[in-house]
């Protein structure tokens, strides 16, 4: 394989990452929409589409392995391939969290909402935006944007804490709300963990460019 053809394959790998990322971002938004609007059909679609995201991950993984085996890439190119292998794992996990939210939406069914959903949709919107920017940073090898994305994880954590405290108050004031409140806490946890996965991707961009592992979330890991 010529160098030009090899670089073409690397670009195709990155294109596949963007496709998978778009699928995952869509799952995040749809899962929250299904919860907010009690759309059980949409919730089931997110759950079913998770299989397609898994298949996309395996497809990309096979392409990476094939390039490593057949081309024996040098350090710089190998870092790109290794970054891709790690990123697709995080993307798959984020999709799992989205499917988890949709499963909760199905569990809640047509029960009356415990409270208007405000902060949870904000968390979903912020997480989806961070994911889109992290993948753009990966394509552009943008370390400054990656550092910024990692710092924004604190905003998600703050919203999670706020939702958690608020739902505890609901449970204390009305024991009958405990089940519904607990399920909303699960939703918040899925979103908080999704944002953590996004920061993994951002940190992987820094490794790709610098060759150094950076744990920008410190003790969270």
Rg over C-alpha atoms, rounded to the nearest angstrom: 19 Å
- N/C terminus separation: 40 Å
Q: Please estimate the helix content.
A: over 70%
CATH topology: Methane Monooxygenase Hydroxylase, Chain G, domain 1
Please summarize the sheet with the most strands.
Answer: none
H/E series: HHHHHH
Strand and helix map with partners:
Blueprint: H1 3-36, H2 40-71, H3 75-108, H4 119-140, H5 143-173, H6 178-210
Helix pairs in contact: 1-2, 1-3, 1-4, 2-3, 3-6, 4-5, 4-6, 5-6
Task: Looking at this protein, list some descriptive labels.
Methane Monooxygenase Hydroxylase, Chain G, domain 1, 6 helices, mainly alpha, 221 residues
Description:
- The chain is an all-alpha fold and 221 residues long.
- It has one domain: Methane Monooxygenase Hydroxylase, Chain G, domain 1 (Up-down Bundle), CATH 1.20.58.220.
- The chain is 84% helix and 0% strand.
- The chain has helices at residues 3-36, 40-71, 75-108, 119-140, 143-173, 178-210.
- α4 packs parallel to α6 (178-210) and α5 packs antiparallel against α6.
- The chain is elongated and about 65 Å long.
- The mean pLDDT is 92.
Provide a brief overview of the structure.
With 221 residues, this protein is an all-alpha fold. The chain has 6 helices and no strands.
